[in-house]
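Please produce the structure of this protein holding (5S)-5-amino-3-OXO-hexanoic acid.
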Amino acid sequence: MSHPVIITCAITGAEITKEKQPHLPITPREQALAAQEAVAAGASIIHLHVREDDGSPSQRVERFHESIEAIRDCCPNVVIQISTGGAVGETIENRSKPLSLRPEMASLNLGTMNFGEDIFVNLPRDIVELGQKMHELGVVPELEIYEVGMLESAFRLAKQGILREPLHFQFVLGVPGGMSGDPRNLVHLVSMLPSPEIHWGVAGIGRYQLPLAVQALVMGGHVRVGFEDNIFYRKGELAQSNAQLVSRIARISQELGREIASPEQTRQMLKITNQ
Ligand code: KMH
Ligand code: ZN
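Below is the modeled complex.
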């Protein structure tokens, strides 16, 4: 395999609760500790959602600022990717506000879909606005793809000059309402990429996390793990920490001969310049 594997850790998310996963990091301090452990285990990107102290999902700029500062204090090198997806039902205005912090990366969701029992709304005009804003601010978007039509929308936006190339995709598979974690889905999505130079990763939801991550390692992709997507280490056994999930992928990756990307290698591969 030519390039090292970027391990992203999605430490918190917007949906999981402490009742379901007692080790879920909520406060900036908890998030900083979780990030520190995840980075020590091999993560080079932290995908970041923030919560208020009561655990409710938030897109408040000050809260993002607090968490980013806390993470930077203990992991000065890690790449921080803020979420513009937020929680289902959050307004697009609030979702876009944290971009004012000019993070190195941010997620950009490429379409509307059923999301479990809810609807995750991403109107075409809002995708364009978020994409343009990221472009202006030098923020590298991670393009969140939940089904193949969203991938084709991203190609269209790139052609129109709204999305900056090189594109970087995250295939989020296993959300009820999107493509499942069937291995054929990942093969199909990757086969649609116009060039083998395009970087892509996979975020498998729930029980799909481990098998899709291993598939991505074998196929030359990158990997996202963490409590946002999966709270279990194995069936019936909660993970002890985000880092435990990162460690396993780092171990398998090394066994397969894939080097783990450092934050610097990650910046180079994804052409990140906002540091
Ligand atoms: N919470 C999900 C509805 C993202 O971070 O951009 C959307 C999400 C995607 O988490
Ligand atoms: Zn997210």
